[in-house]
Amino acid sequence: MGWGVFAIFFLVPDISLFGYALGPKIGSALYKTAHSYLIPLLILGVSLYLKEPSLLAAGLIWTAHIGFDRMLGYGLKYGAGFGVTHLGLIGRHRKTP
Fold first, then answer.
1. Gap between the terminal Cα atoms of the chain
2. Each residue's pLDDT expressed in tens, for the chain with a length of 97 residues
3. Which residues pair with 88 in a beta bridge?
4. How many Å apart are CA 19 and CA 85, to the nearest integer?
5. How far, in Å, CA of 49 to CA of 16, rounded?
6. Which UniProt keyword terms apply here (predicted)?
7. Whole-model pTM?
8. What is d(CA 53, CA 32) in angstroms, rounded to the nearest whole number?
9. Whether the Cβ atoms of residue 40 and residue 67 lie closer than 8 Å to each other
């Protein structure tokens, strides 16, 4: 597996953003599901139990994506809209002085 594969799989959780086309509640639910640590940690556990390197890579890449998003300030979304997160307001929802 090379860097190209890493880059592609690194962006896969952001497919959940298309849920916002169906409304903020559905979009936030899909985004929260794809950006919660629960599923990648389960995948990592299964990969260690089964000794499956491809699952290990998937879990690590997914975890890296979530950490990167948190570092940029993109937290888990609330149903009020994309810019309302558990880390605070982002984008045009943010109040500027």
1. 47
2. 688 889 999 999 999 999 999 999 999 999 999 999 999 999 999 999 999 999 999 999 999 999 999 898 888 888 877 778 888 777 665 665 5
3. 85
4. 16
5. 28
6. Membrane, Transmembrane, Transmembrane helix
7. 0.82
8. 26
9. no
